[in-house]
Amino acid sequence: MNFVQWIGAGLGWTFGGPIGAIIGWVVGNALDSGASTFFDEFDGQKTSKRPKRVHSKRSTSRRPQEKTTQSGDFEISLLMLSAIVIKADGKTDQKELDYVRQQFVSMYGKQRANNAFKLFNGIMKKKGISTRQICMQIQRNMDHASRLQLLHYLFGIAQADGHVSEDEVNSIRKMAGYMYINLSDFESIKAMFFSDTNNAYKILEIEKDATDDEVKKAFRTMAKKYHPDKVQHLGEEHLKGAEEKFRKVKQAYEQIQQERGF
């Protein structure tokens, strides 16, 4: 699968809005730079295989249960938000870039990851990307469980260099807000990447003075929220990250159980 075929296969709702515009800029820039070898086949497919732009009322008036997220939509969203997080502290860290590549190879295989990085490198060079517009498009089109999975992944990128800076945390918090992820969910996922005595309670989204019954109820709620089945529609390649979130919830509950002796 060449670069253009990958783009065509990997995009769904992302062809419209700011995400589609940025991808169009990247592709156009690649052509202007003489990288036409990537797009030779594209010219011959303009009338038959080129993905059609779809205008839908769902983008402005869609009920939550109608949102469907495909693996390709999630993949493009990862690239866009990863670039924003990596550039949040004003520098491009090679460890963070390596982490993104490693994760894409792990999830999608080497060939698909290489195609993704052709696009990612172009996104990294693009200036003036509107975090708000990108996140709002994701919020309108992506289900809540998939957005939580995005957030988990972004903290993984920020931590890849061994230190999560305040700028990176603020950037991810801003994106969470734009994607309609509430503060409790944000703090829950954030706590999975930090060492703190109260993190077990933060992961379960409860206070330290919660009763044993409240702890048990919180565990059931969070286990349901972060269950890997929630993102099964994204494909097997994303189950590993979902299982990691679920495992953190179980570990948090077991830690509190041990501390309290129930």
From TrEMBL:
Comp. bias (Basic residues): 47-61
Q: Which SMART domains match?
A: DnaJ (SM00271)
The molecular function terms in GO held by this entry are: misfolded protein binding; protein-folding chaperone binding
> Which residue range or ranges hold the J domain?
199-261
Q: What's the short name of a Pfam family annotated to this entry?
A: TerB
Positions of region (Disordered): 42-70
Indicate what this protein is called per its UniProt record: DnaJ domain-containing protein
What organism does this protein naturally occur in? Answer: Spongiivirga citrea
